[in-house]
Amino acid sequence: YRPGGSAVQWSPRANLRYDLSDRARVYASVGRFSQAQRVDEWRIEEAQRSPDPAQRALHAIVGLEVSRDASTRVSIEAYSKRWTTASPYFDSRLDPLSLLPDLAPDRLRVVPARSEATGLEVNARAPLSSSTTAWATVTWSRVADDFGPIDVLRSWDQPIAVTAGLAWKGSRASVSGLASWHTGWPRTPILSTASASGPSSALVLGERNAGRWSGYYALDLRASW
């Protein structure tokens, strides 16, 4: 970004797989990743003049996969992603779905010391017949920013997520359905406080992401001929 500027970043990675049998295998992966700030990520709203240091993260994955054939398999995978260098970012206190929290009047500048995402995922896929296939995924996860003595959940944290699908395909027609549910995302509670001078009350924002929305459900259906 600067005339004559330069940077050197190391991103070593290691992968290992061991076949327990013809149907089962274990695998592991660990790596260090770095990501420089893109031009479109510059915080123009606060007149950022110099780029943030490159973000650095340590990724680790360990898993087990068992398959009966090419179309039937079950896998379990645990992962950890820890940002040792995290850049500041904007977040909306009232609207976690905001695509541009930078422009929102309730925006908040978040400056974590570190961040971490960890989880466990179980996947299964199997044919029920020659024309019908089913699959499902269950995930337990946690995503939080580290501010020294405390952790604050990120606005898209969802501890439990479940997805299940079913697909049928004939010679000319096909029908599929996908059902999903996940724990509600964190939210900032709005509190009502009584006024000291009279019966009127005022609304104030509580601690950021201290509450949580109710569960999210979705059902998608598709048919074609």
Element layout with pairings:
Elements: E1 13-19, E2 24-35, E3 55-69, E4 72-85, E5 89-92, E6 107-110, E7 114-127, E8 132-146, E9 151-153, E10 160-169, E11 174-182, E12 186-187, E13 190-194, E14 201-205, E15 211-212, E16 216-224
Antiparallel strand pairs: 1-2, 2-3, 3-4, 4-7, 5-6, 7-8, 8-9, 8-10, 10-11, 11-16, 12-15, 13-14
Describe the protein.
- The structure is a single chain.
- With 225 residues, this protein is mainly β.
- Helices cover 0% and strands 58% of the residues.
- It contains no helices and 16 strands.
- A hairpin with a 2-residue loop joins β3 (55-69) and β4.
- The protein starts with 12 loop residues before the first strand and ends with a strand.
Structural class: mainly beta
Q: What proportion of the residues form beta strands (DSSP E)?
A: over 45%
Major beta-sheet overview: 10 strands, antiparallel
Number of helices: 0
For the termini, the CA-CA separation is 53 Å
Provide the residue-averaged pLDDT.
90
Shape, per Cα inertia axes: globular
